[in-house]
Amino acid sequence: MSSRYLSFRCSVPWLILLLQTLLLIHSFLGFPGVGDIYSPSSFYPEFQDVSHMVLFGFGFFLMVLRRYGFSSTGFNFLLVVLGVQCSVLVEDLLVFLREQQNEPGMESLAKAVVSMTAVVISTGAVLGKANPVQLIVMTLVELIIFYVSRCINSKFLQVPEKLTLMHVHLFGAYFGLALTSRFPGPPPGLDKNRSTPKSDLFSVLGTVFVWVFWPSFNSILANSKMEPVLNTYLALAVSAVAAFMLSALTSKDGKFRMSQVRSALLAGGVAISHTAHRIQHPWIAMILGLLASAISVLGSHCLQRCFNPALKLQDTSGVHFTFGLPAVLGAVAAVVLSAVEDGIETQWNDLSSLGYLIFVDLGAFCQTISTALITGLITGLILNIKLLKAVHVSKYFDDQFFWEVSFQTISD
């Protein structure tokens, strides 16, 4: 057995044991000011949907590599179940330090699962290159920074606390892109970072699962469920239809490309996450879904050829044009919609007040992106120190380095 295998056996289990021990101590002691975890709540149906979406949906969504299926689903499950507990701990600790009253247990748990979506998205960018120790450290750092970013938006920019969670796609995508830029690229002859019809099929299965439960994700913390659910479904439906249309139009032979369709299916749900609660006309949601799908398809068509090679980005799962660009579109749509609505309410008389509201909205999204990029770069440098046993580039995208894999599975 190689020394690298031994080093992982001596580090990964003990790191998990250490974290789980700290989490058990937290659950035993608790923090003053934390709400009653067993108080009645109506969150469970939506919470169950979001849990299915994050565990099952994203787990299979990441199965895009032909020899990395065990790691895609297995590491995703490990990070989610460990990260949800860490997210509750981080939020309880920071709320205690701010001397505030935290939400009751079910709502806090729901926020933790939603926050983990940022980590899952970032994992898609470094998929196949980061080892379990690096992924666990990334999870801890990203959860803390995302919570700090939310605090800045809510405290200084007066963004509603529940709405700050909908920045999760924006933060996760650009944190992951900055992170992956610090990892060495695979050698030119390595062909393990490609997909097969079997891996594409599993990935599409996960995408459809995420698609089905996305309305619950956008409405889980909303006071009124009707508008977010209806608007999200309409945006998702239009983006799915547009995905097939644009994929055929942009291909040379007029055939559908599964990679483009898979990415664009979710674009509408990402783009409308910022505004699903406030859109009052269905046609607005449908147009937003159409534009999101167009940005996703055209982005996957152009960025992989021009943008990624110039910046040396190895975006394994295409999180930039699946989550990043649609989230930017959603941010712009939120600013425009806020300006129109507030302008109508004030009859365009108080332009200084209107300008301040627009500035606040822009500031929240710019702060989120800037924090994600800067901290993602720093985290990428930290993850590549010798102590964390970075995977050699020749071992990228291979289950065999971490899992017991049969020869038949490898050949498939």
Automatic annotation (TrEMBL):
<feature type="transmembrane region" description="Helical">
    <location>
        <begin position="283"/>
        <end position="307"/>
    </location>
</feature>
<dbReference type="GO" id="GO:0097272">
    <property type="term" value="P:ammonium homeostasis"/>
</dbReference>
<feature type="transmembrane region" description="Helical">
    <location>
        <begin position="201"/>
        <end position="221"/>
    </location>
</feature>
<dbReference type="InterPro" id="IPR024041">
    <property type="entry name" value="NH4_transpt_AmtB-like_dom"/>
</dbReference>
<dbReference type="InterPro" id="IPR029020">
    <property type="entry name" value="Ammonium/urea_transptr"/>
</dbReference>
<feature type="transmembrane region" description="Helical">
    <location>
        <begin position="12"/>
        <end position="38"/>
    </location>
</feature>
<feature type="transmembrane region" description="Helical">
    <location>
        <begin position="233"/>
        <end position="250"/>
    </location>
</feature>
<keyword id="KW-1133">Transmembrane helix</keyword>
<dbReference type="GO" id="GO:0008519">
    <property type="term" value="F:ammonium channel activity"/>
</dbReference>
<keyword id="KW-0472">Membrane</keyword>
<dbReference type="InterPro" id="IPR002229">
    <property type="entry name" value="RhesusRHD"/>
</dbReference>
<protein>
    <submittedName>
        <fullName>RHL protein</fullName>
    </submittedName>
</protein>
<feature type="transmembrane region" description="Helical">
    <location>
        <begin position="75"/>
        <end position="97"/>
    </location>
</feature>
<feature type="domain" description="Ammonium transporter AmtB-like">
    <location>
        <begin position="43"/>
        <end position="387"/>
    </location>
</feature>
<comment type="similarity">
    <text>Belongs to the ammonium transporter (TC 2.A.49) family. Rh subfamily.</text>
</comment>
<feature type="transmembrane region" description="Helical">
    <location>
        <begin position="356"/>
        <end position="385"/>
    </location>
</feature>
<dbReference type="GO" id="GO:0005886">
    <property type="term" value="C:plasma membrane"/>
</dbReference>
<feature type="transmembrane region" description="Helical">
    <location>
        <begin position="50"/>
        <end position="69"/>
    </location>
</feature>
<feature type="transmembrane region" description="Helical">
    <location>
        <begin position="164"/>
        <end position="181"/>
    </location>
</feature>
<dbReference type="Pfam" id="PF00909">
    <property type="entry name" value="Ammonium_transp"/>
</dbReference>
<feature type="transmembrane region" description="Helical">
    <location>
        <begin position="319"/>
        <end position="340"/>
    </location>
</feature>
<feature type="transmembrane region" description="Helical">
    <location>
        <begin position="133"/>
        <end position="152"/>
    </location>
</feature>
<keyword id="KW-0812">Transmembrane</keyword>
